[in-house]
Design a protein that fits this description.
Blueprint: H1 35-44, E1 49-53, H2 60-69, E2 78-82, H3 90-102, H4 110-117, H5 138-155, E3 161-166, H6 174-185, E4 191-197, H7 205-210, E5 214-218, H8 219-222, H9 226-236, H10 243-253, H11 257-267, H12 273-279, H13 285-294, H14 301-310, H15 318-325, H16 330-339, E6 344-346, E7 354-356, H17 358-371, H18 375-390, H19 393-402, H20 406-422, H21 426-435, H22 438-442, H23 445-457, H24 461-472, H25 478-494, H26 498-511, H27 517-533, H28 537-554, H29 557-573, H30 577-590, H31 603-615, H32 619-636, H33 641-656, H34 660-676, H35 682-697, H36 701-710, E8 721-724, E9 727-730, H37 733-749, H38 753-769, H39 773-790, H40 793-807, H41 814-817, H42 820-832, H43 837-847, H44 871-881, H45 886-893, H46 897-911, H47 916-925
Parallel strand pairs: 1-4, 1-5, 2-3, 3-4
Antiparallel strand pairs: 6-7, 8-9
């Protein structure tokens, strides 16, 4: 029940006090409920102190007023004091504390107040805004006496109470801090203190924390979660935003409540909400007004100048700040800003690197533009010089560009461009080159080559060829000539001219020196792609393995990861799912940045692993991997093939999960991406073929037949070409196989088994000759279904048994389960004949949509760990291995993200690793994971 404030007491009868400072702010109806935080407040009430510490606008006061409106489980009554700068006088401060308590219990603190008003043995007139002498020497003893009397009076109360001190950051006087520390040290058992502040308290928090006397709520916990943001924006503010828009706004505001409120107010009446969200920054006038009034204007001049000068930096360290500002107090200032909760976030445990909250940084930059527009180039120039000396050089390029220092920019890009391309940071390099005038890039052959490589990695073939021509028009070194040859070979492979691509790649390998591992790796990759398109699995596998080995030695992550993913794809085609899984995992381990985050180049590893997991019928894990692969692909390029592959596999995952509408929606995204990816025709073939397969699975045979007719596939009994956008496109072996398989599936559904079998027989023979066991499994299954329609039971069982014999050892499931009831009938027959009974029973369970029971995991063998992992840490590790984010793990285990981070910290320490990928790898080596 709500706490009733005793308004009958004359709280100002001795000293003139503002009673409005004792009123509890009413709970706001325009905010989402936050039960997770009120639970924390309720749980902390048995401790001495709850500290709520966060920057302006994080909802500290609002949280406490809402907590009061729905009282704690123990129903402790609540007294409130809103502090201001005048309360730096310790006598005034204690008068308000007593007055606040008197709103609950009439007469409490009377004796203490008498002592406060009595003449002191060395009386002085209280000094406004702080009187630090009041707790020195004898005065300290006198104040402790007052506090002791007050504490005794509180302890004598029959009822418990909570005292809230709001806005404590205005207190600067050491005398008041000392009084609060004494009160906390001797707090009566039935009293709880809550302090809300924008800055940390100058109190021994570590001691309170160690003794279990402290509950802390900080900015990370006060931020709106995705669910809370959705409730606030759509239910409270009635904006009707999509999940994507809410997620984008949450990322932009970093869960800052005031930022979300300001954005919501600004969105009212807006027609283009997604566009507004994309453009919402710290320069928006509502944000500017709030931060100027609530934050910047309250800082001393030296702090304001530091904030504005360092706003151009996306990461802050003491030495870097000194270089940019021309001062020598960078580290001290960063620590001061952190203590003051001035929208600064530490990026490491050593408190060396920091960053500003994104909206706050945007606000500071807008303010700098407003008051000192000419200072930007000077500051960026200083930052570029510092990064060039200290690294990373990529940051030096960013600041040199911002300073419009073209000579330095060109020099730095030529110095590190290849290294970044090898690390798959393609978008970064292209962004730099696009920011330079075209005539400057054209005059530098090395820059032209880097641009061609980047465009080639994004499958922008026409533009890659254009910039290659610009490079060839200049004066090339022998190394540049080798790079140009490798680019030509890659272009030929993508254009389907496999013979020329093989010739160019082989020539490059013969001519290149042994120590040019970069170009040798690229040429080996090109050779593998050409052999793969031509269907030569063995030659392609050898080339990809060589490319991966050579490139890993050279530190060329781009080529090594690409080669491993292509090798894994061939292993899947060869029916080697276990081996492919190991290869994809190796690629994922390589595709990790300096801070442990997946690099964009890992997109293919995640989408490939997602498709493999789909085949194993682990649909949840498949969806997670595919979603991450799509996101990484989009980071690499908005129109990247890895994202396209991810959408195609995800559509089939949706279909297998029973979400037919969702499958079609994902397929539409794939089609749109293929249209955007207009430099290749083959991607249109791939997407259309997958879409036709989806239609067939959903019984939409008319649409699938229209596809076959439009693409000219019904004009021949075994089409070797397709009619694409009015052009005749020859189908290489891989594409011909995928088209024929879908066409055969259509004929079976149309009860035309002879046509299907006529297509499938040569496919089977060629797949067997090429060692494509994965293809043999699928083709054999379709043969079995065709024989079934034809009424040939013996032929059907023979074909199905061939598929089962190849598939069982590799845990194939979906290739059978996707065929529905006709396959169930065939499997029942094989089960009755005792053919692979355990495996067939598992397949029948998948056809009935039964979840596959997890295989029992053997107890881990003794490990060299000094301290073993707890059961909860093992759970976190298993979810980590499945690719879940911290937030997803938290939701799965019903804990906070902070708890997950704590578990990860312990796991890393016990395993002796520093990243998620390393933790999973080490755990597998120690048999802690299956």
């Amino acid at each position: 029940m709500p706490v009733t404030v005793n308004t009958g007491t004359d709280v100002s009868r001795r000293v003139p006090l503002l009673t409005t400072k004792l009123y509890i702010p009413p709970a706001r109806p325009d905010l989402a409920p936050r039960p997770r935080l009120t639970r924390r407040l309720n749980e902390g009430i048995e401790r001495r102190l709850t500290l709520i510490s966060a920057p302006a606008g994080f909802g500290k006061t609002t949280l406490l007023s809402a907590w009061h409106a729905v009282p704690p489980g123990s129903e402790w009554p609540l007294a409130w004091v809103s502090l201001d700068k005048d309360d730096n006088d310790p006598v005034r401060f204690l008068n308000y504390v007593i007055a606040g308590l008197e709103t609950l219990y009439e007469g409490v603190g009377e004796n203490a107040q008498v002592l406060l008003q009595a003449p002191q043995h060395s009386s002085t007139t209280p000094t406004p805004h702080g009187a630090t002498s009041r707790l020195r020497g004898g005065e300290a003893q006198w104040m402790e006496t007052v506090l002791t009397v007050l504490i005794n009076e509180i302890a004598a109360l029959a009822e418990p109470c909570v005292l809230v001190l709001d806005d404590y950051h205005v207190i600067e006087a050491q005398a008041v801090n000392s009084a609060l520390a004494f009160l906390l040290d001797h707090l009566p058992p039935r009293m709880h203190l809550v302090v809300a502040s924008r800055a940390d308290l100058p109190l021994p928090l570590a001691s309170l924390r160690a003794r279990g006397h402290l509950t802390e709520l900080r900015a990370d916990e006060l931020r709106f979660t995705s669910d809370e943001a959705a409730v606030f924006l759509n239910q409270v503010m009635d904006l009707g935003l999509s999940a994507e828009d809410i997620a984008a706004l949450e990322r932009r505001t970093e869960g800052w409540i005031a930022g979300l409120q300001l954005a919501a107010l600004s969105m009212r009446g807006q027609d283009d909400l997604p566009g507004f969200i994309k453009a919402f920054t710290g320069s928006h006038h509502y944000v500017l007004d709030y931060l100027v009034e609530e934050v910047l204007s309250r800082q001393p001049e030296g702090v304001r100048a530091f904030l504005l000068d360092t706003s151009i930096l996306d990461r802050l360290s003491g030495p870097l700040c000194d270089a940019v500002t021309g001062r020598d107090d960078g580290q001290a200032m960063l620590e001061r800003l952190e203590r003051a909760n001035l929208f600064i976030v530490p990026l490491d445990s050593e408190r060396f690197w920091y960053r500003y909250h994104h909206l706050f940084a945007g606000f500071l930059r807008a303010r700098l533009h407003q008051v000192q527009p000419d200072r930007f180039q000077v500051l960026h120039h200083r930052a570029a010089e510092w990064y060039e000396r200290n690294g990373p050089i990529a940051k030096a390029v960013d600041h040199a560009l911002a300073a419009e220092d073209l000579d330095r920019t060109i020099h730095l890009i030529e110095r590190i461009g290849r290294d970044l391309l090898m690390r798959s940071e393609v978008a970064t390099v292209l962004g730099w080159l696009e920011a330079l005038p075209d005539d400057i890039v054209c005059a530098r052959p090395q820059l032209c080559i880097y641009r061609a490589w980047g465009l080639l990695a994004q499958i922008q073939l026409d533009l890659a060829e254009k910039w290659l021509r610009h490079a060839l028009a200049g004066e090339l070194t022998e190394n540049m000539k080798g790079e140009a040859g490798a680019i030509r070979a890659t272009l030929a492979a993508f254009e389907g001219d496999t013979q020329r691509s093989v010739e160019l790649a082989q020539q490059a390998l013969e001519r290149l020196p042994e120590d040019d591992v970069f170009l040798r790796g690229v040429s080996a990759l090109n050779l593998g792609i050409s052999h793969m398109i031509g269907g030569d699995v063995v030659a392609a596998s050898h080339a990809f393995a060589d490319a991966a080995k050579i490139s890993e030695m050279a530190g060329n992550l781009l080529v090594s990861v690409l080669a491993l993913c292509q090798l894994a794809e061939l292993q899947m085609a060869g029916g080697q799912l276990h081996l492919a899984a190991e290869t994809y995992q190796r690629a994922q381990r390589l595709a990790v940045g300096r801070e442990g985050q997946p690099l964009p180049i890992g997109a293919m590893a995640y989408t490939g692993m997602g498709e493999l997991l789909r085949q194993r019928n682990d649909l949840e894990a498949a969806a997670r991997h595919l979603t991450q692969g799509i996101e990484l692909g989009r980071q690499w390029s908005e129109t990247h093939m890895a994202a396209l592959d991810g959408y195609l596999s995800l559509a089939h995952v949706k279909q297998a999960s029973g979400d037919a509408e969702g499958a079609l929606q994902v397929m539409q995204k794939a089609e749109q991406l293929a249209q955007d990816l207009d430099s290749m025709v083959l991607d249109d073939v791939i997407v259309a073929t997958h879409h036709a397969r989806l239609w067939i699975a959903q019984g939409k045979l008319e649409l699938a037949t229209r596809w076959a007719r439009q693409w000219g596939l019904l004009e021949s009994t075994a089409p070797t070409v397709a009619r694409v956008q009015g052009e005749i496109l020859p189908l290489s072996y891989i594409f011909r196989e995928s088209v024929h398989v879908v066409l055969a599936r259509l004929f079976i559904k149309q009860s035309k088994p002879r046509k299907a079998l006529k297509l499938l027989l040569p496919l089977l023979q060629q797949a067997q000759e090429l060692g494509r066991a994965g293809s043999v499994i699928e083709i054999s299954i379709l043969q079995a279904l065709a024989y079934q329609v034809q009424g040939d039971a013996a032929g059907a069982l023979t074909a199905l048994e061939r598929a089962l014999s190849l598939a069982e050892a590799q845990d194939y499931v979906r290739v059978f389960a996707d065929e529905g009831q006709p396959m169930a009938q065939l499997l029942q027959e094989t089960l009755s004949r005792g053919i692979s009974p355990d495996y067939v029973a598992e397949l029948l369970g998948a056809l009935r949509n039964e979840r596959k029971a997890p295989r029992p995991r053997a107890a881990p063998s003794p490990t060299p760990l000094i301290e073993p992992l707890s059961e909860r840490e093992i759970e976190v590790l298993e979810l980590l291995a499945d690719g879940l984010s911290n937030r997803e793990i938290a939701r799965k285990l019903f804990v906070t993200v902070g708890t997950v981070k704590w578990h990860l910290h312990n796991i890393y320490g016990k395993l002796g690793v520093r990243s998620r990928v390393q933790a999973v790898s080490q755990a597998r080596e120690l048999s802690l994971l299956a």
